[in-house]
């Protein structure tokens, strides 16, 4: 396996590299996709709710299959999680995203950060800290420019192990974000126990704002909690100006959603950064 450090994940195999067969399972297709370099990374802006300035990007994996087209991560990540391919794909994504951030910064001429999803299996893998160190060293990023997104579930599988990994992540100054906050099965006690910096409010709580009283109450409670615990909040899946205004008025600092930027290829993200400099 070879990480090109940029752009695509390529695994070289001896000989065989025939045309894609019909009716092969998605899983078999995935191994082929890794060899053929069909995986790529998209980047979605995370913006300041007040100024709308891009602060960072979330890295989102894409699989561009020659005949199936774009296979959504909701379909292939669970398979990769089951067969372990996520360790290879995740390591590639982390390194490539760090390298990409350097290029984004050169264009933006200011510090930005990169947020990368870490799956439960990746998080538990023995090699994970080596992978993290390699990505930071290879890219020359500062640890503080890296946000690692994990879910409540990842923490709860083995909290003792999680605590030790998280403390090693924070030794490297990487920040920890809780993804899909509020949707997992866990108690709030983990916010006290673990060194968490960011809460990402799941789109499920944003979608029906500002109309839904219940979702409003949940968002307010999260924002209040975050304020008192000194955590940052990113609202996910913001699609309308009304949602943005509602959240911004209640002190939500960061927004991520189709309203302020869809996930995009690196060159499109670069163009967006260039354009924002001339505003
Ligand atoms: P996630 O981490 O919660 O990522 C946010 C998802 O919401 C992304 O879906 C994004 O495209 C979508 N989204 C963002 N803004 C909006 C919006 O305004 N409206 C709507 N309707 N959707 C929005 P995507 O890219 O399909 O990814 C789905 C999930 O797959 C991710 O959910 C994450 O759990 C997983 N995933 C994606 N890339 C990676 C990766 O590199 N590694 C791992 N482990 N998981 C990944
Ligand atoms: Ca995420
Ligand atoms: Ca999320
Ligand atoms: Ca989600």
UniProtKB/TrEMBL annotation:
Start and end residues of each EAL domain: 23-277
Protein name, per record: Bifunctional diguanylate cyclase/phosphodiesterase
Natural source organism: Duganella aceris
Lineage: Bacteria, Pseudomonadati, Pseudomonadota, Betaproteobacteria, Burkholderiales
């Amino acid at each position: 396996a070879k990480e090109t450090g940029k752009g695509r994940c390529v695994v070289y195999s001896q000989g065989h590299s025939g045309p894609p067969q019909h009716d092969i399972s998605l899983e078999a297709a995935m191994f082929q996709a890794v060899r053929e370099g069909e995986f790529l990374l998209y980047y979605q802006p995370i913006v300041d709710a007040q100024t709308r300035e891009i602060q960072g990007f979330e890295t989102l994996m894409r699989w561009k299959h020659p005949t199936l087209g774009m296979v959504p991560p909701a379909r292939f990540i669970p398979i990769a999680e089951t067969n372990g391919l996520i360790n290879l794909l995740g390591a590639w994504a982390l390194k490539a995203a760090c390298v990409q951030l350097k290029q984004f910064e050169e264009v933006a001429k200011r510090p930005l950060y990169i947020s990368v999803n870490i799956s439960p299996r990746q998080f538990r893998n023995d090699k994970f800290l080596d992978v993290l160190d390699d990505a930071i060293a290879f890219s020359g990023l500062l640890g503080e420019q890296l946000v690692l997104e994990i879910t409540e579930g990842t923490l709860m599988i083995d909290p003792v192990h999680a605590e030790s990994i998280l403390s090693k992540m924070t030794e490297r100054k990487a920040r920890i974000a809780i993804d899909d906050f509020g949707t997992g099965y866990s108690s709030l006690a983990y916010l006290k126990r673990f060194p968490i910096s960011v809460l990402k409010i799941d789109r499920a709580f944003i979608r029906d704002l500002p109309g839904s009283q219940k979702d409003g109450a949940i968002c307010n409670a999260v924002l209040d909690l975050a304020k008192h615990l000194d955590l940052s909040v990113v609202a996910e899946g913001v699609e309308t100006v009304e949602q943005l205004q509602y959240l911004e008025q209640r002190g939500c600092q960061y927004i991520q959603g189709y309203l302020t930027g869809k996930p995009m290829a690196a060159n499109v993200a670069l163009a967006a950064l260039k354009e924002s400099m001339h505003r």
